[in-house]
Design brief:
The protein is α+β, with helices and mostly antiparallel strands. Helices cover about 35% and strands about 20% of the residues.
């Protein structure tokens, strides 16, 4: 595989590809249809158990009462996997003060979007098959530039973020890979050739 498509350098490649009108239009069209479908999603249950029905109602209420961002915003962030091959959002909770659903002490405050660039390390189970968490680059170092980040030494937060604290979406994931495979991989060669041709046309060579 070409170095430009190897993680984490591939994230930079995808961002460059998204400046191409054709690539951006294709991803944008797919995102528009998927966002529309996801935004209408809701929890349902086939159970006739009153508690199951009540909990399902609570979950749907919770999605409509997020703070700082909406469920629609979350859908847009989820679909970041169409570009990067994966996306992840951190689950942030808060006390539940709803009078209607007072039996549930906590509710989801928001699904906070997190950058793919911020991931420094995936943490796996002992058998290497299951993701159990991740660690991020410190914010101040991430702001200095993603390309330079892996070459430096940092004081890590050893705890990281456990798997149950974030949701992960991967495109075409194989062998339990959390980073998936971006659909942009398939058009990278065509995009590369196009940019080279454009260069030659501009320079007249």
């Amino acid at each position: 595989m070409r170095q430009e498509l190897r993680a984490p350098q591939n994230l930079i490649t995808y961002e460059r590809m998204m400046t191409d009108a054709t690539v951006a239009a294709a991803i944008g069209t797919a995102s528009a249809f998927l966002t529309k479908a996801l935004a209408k999603a809701k929890f349902v249950t086939q159970s006739k158990n009153p508690e199951a029905i009540e909990f399902c109602d609570f979950l749907n209420w919770n999605l409509k009462n997020l703070k700082d961002n909406t469920w629609y915003d979350s859908c847009i962030n989820i679909l970041g996997y169409l570009q990067a091959g994966f996306s992840w959002l951190e689950k942030v909770y808060e006390p539940n003060y709803s009078s209607k659903h007072s039996k549930y002490k906590w509710k989801l405050k928001k699904l906070a979007p997190r950058s793919q660039h911020s991931i420094a390390e995936w943490k796996f189970s002992d058998d290497g098959r299951t993701v159990i968490g991740l660690r991020q680059y410190p914010p101040q170092n991430l702001n200095n530039g993603y390309i330079n980040s892996p070459n430096k030494t940092y004081a890590w937060n050893d705890q990281g973020i456990p798997r149950n604290k974030f949701i992960l979406f991967s495109w075409d994931s194989k062998n339990s890979s959390p980073i998936g495979t971006s659909p942009l991989n398939a058009c990278w060669r065509a995009w590369k050739e196009k940019t080279l041709i454009e260069c030659f046309i501009v320079t007249g060579k």
